[in-house]
Write a structure and sequence with these properties.
about 90 residues; mainly beta; 1 helix; globular
């Protein structure tokens, strides 16, 4: 299998808290980037458009329990995600 790169955008961040209101985890939901200008970009100048063309739909949710990562993700941020086979 070849590696694959996706471009995802943070849709939401939900903080999980204990009874004392301490953050114990975060659920982060990502979705595939959208075409920002419809189908108008046929020259490949809009990277989001190019990613959306070849991966038109993606949803990904992750539960983070590492306190060092709390607060690192915000709605609207975009990230590349690389997939490669694990041994």
């Amino acid at each position: 299998m070849n590696t694959m790169r996706a471009k995802l955008q943070v849709g939401s961040v939900f903080q999980h808290k204990d009874a004392e209101q301490n953050v114990t985890g975060e659920s982060v939901t990502f979705f595939g980037v959208c075409r920002t200008n419809g189908y108008a970009d046929t020259d490949g100048l809009d990277e989001d458009n190019t990613f959306a063309r070849y991966t038109p739909s993606a949803n990904f949710q992750i539960m983070i329990a590492n306190p060092a990562l709390f607060g690192q993700f915000e709605p609207g941020q975009k990230f590349y995600v690389d997939f490669s086979p694990a041994k």
